Amino acid sequence: MVAGEASADRHASKVIRSLQGVFEEVEIFGMGGPFMKASGMECCYGMDELSVMGFSDVLPRIRRIHEVYKGIQRLITSRKPDIVIPVDLPDFNMRVARFARKNNTKVLYYIAPQAWAWRSYRAGTLREITDGLAVIFPFEEEFFSGYGVNARYVGHPLMEDLSLTEEAAWPVKRIAILPGSRYHEIRQILPIMLGAKHIVQEKYPDITWHLPVAPGLDINVIAGMADNDIHLTESLPRVDLAMVKSGTSCFEMAIQCIPAVICYRTSAFNYLLARSFVKTRFIGMPNIIMGKAIAPELIQDELNEKALAKELLKYITDRSLFLDAVADCKNLRERMGDQRSDQEVARWVTELL
Questions:
Q1: How far apart are CA 231 and CA 215, in angstroms?
Q2: What CATH number has the domain bearing residue 218?
Q3: Helices 319-336 and 305-317: crossing angle, nearest 10°?
Q4: pLDDT for 252-310, tens place per residue?
Q5: Alpha helices of 204-340 — where are they, by DSSP H?
Q6: 134 and 273 inside one domain
Q7: Same domain, yes or no, for 57 and 100?
Q8: How far is CA 83 from CA 90, 258, 346, in A?
Q9: Are 224 and 293 in a shared domain?
């Protein structure tokens, strides 16, 4: 198994446990993080080796990335696994998959590259280098199957832990601040979110503010960047509204039925490159899945404290708008289904072997 960032580490760890439940004896090795290691995988390489984001971040570390790739090649040729399970990380893992197939090793790719958004030629490549592609969004199965890929929707791993003990409520009393899971993201987006918070606070001083600190981040560092009245937590608290960086967290807000404003900003260089390639109408996954803006998006130059505060205040002052957003989120949950992706992937492994 090969995973290279935090969410993939968590999702892959569940697959490891499901595989252990299916096979009496199973040896799992490769590259991963603390969750995969705790689940019993032999981590020959740590995922922090590839902890990069954006076009410009890769260049300074390209030599080490290449060394890790060559090391994984040696693992495949020397230890001869029955199957290779690359998890997300397409720029790296598609090369791993191609090498494995050339060495007559079966490949079940888990969490597909977003070829429907950009670099659609990858879909044709996946047809050639995989025996199966386990996708986590319903529309992806049809998209990849159209290119001849053996694709199957297995459910989304975040749905497995979903439990709504308390629904988001209006009037809004609690707002979450989710500026990302990497320091460079937080430094770009958190100041704008704090500026929006100050504008909202002037009108609604009784609202409380909550900032979950992502695993791997130093809570003291984040505390030094945030206001003193913000509640820092290790996990997502129950809130009524959120401002959230585009990514996994905005999808998590939607399946928790929490209305949100989606924010995105990166360096001008990365943004110009991405804008040249990405062909989706929306950037937030909830909007992509539903085919409409169930959450407003503020992207790059559109993202400023006044614009963000304006969107938050719409939900705070308009009950109908708030309830419509909650209803859209519930529809999204229904569309995602109730499959357990870890069990579906483990079952598919047994079929392939």
A1: 16
A2: 3.40.50.2000
A3: 90
A4: 999 999 999 999 887 676 666 666 666 677 889 999 999 999 999 999 889 999 999 99
A5: 219-225, 248-255, 268-277, 285-290, 305-317, 319-336
A6: no
A7: yes
A8: 18, 39, 12
A9: yes
Domain with 75 in it:
6-155+338-352
Concatenated DSSP letters of 137-197: SHHHHHHHHTTT--EEE---GGGGG---SS---SS--EEEEE--SSHHHHHHHHHHHHHHH
Q: Are residues 309 and 184 in the same domain?
A: yes
Cα–Cα separations (whole angstroms), residue 213 to 108, 181, 221, 222: 32, 8, 10, 7
135 burial via Cβ count (<10 Å: 0-12, 13-18, 19+): buried
Verify that 331 and 344 share a domain, yes or no: no
Residue 16 lies in a domain: yes
The whole-angstrom distance between residue 99's C-alpha and the CA centroid of its chain comes to 26
Any domain includes 311: yes
* 160 falls within a domain: no
Q: Do 344 and 257 belong to one domain?
A: no
DSSP state of 47: G
- How many other C-beta atoms are found inside a 10 Å radius of the C-beta of residue 89? 19
Q: Cβ-count burial of 163 within 10 angstroms (0-12 exposed, 13-18 middle, 19+ buried)?
A: exposed
Q: pLDDT tens, 194-242?
A: 999 999 999 999 999 999 998 778 999 999 999 999 999 988 878 999 9
User: Strand 29-32 and strand 42-46: pairing?
Assistant: parallel
Q: How many domains does the chain have?
A: 2
**Residue at 168 is within a domain:** no
185 and 245 housed in the same domain: yes
For the chain, how many residues are written?
353
Tokens 């969004």 appear where? Answer: 137
Q: Are residues 144 and 119 in the same domain?
A: yes
Give residue 64's Cα distance to chain centre.
24
Inter-residue contact 283 to 297 (CB < 8 Å): yes
Q: Are 208 and 173 in contact (CB under 8 A)?
A: yes
Which residue matches tokens 């070829």? Answer: 115
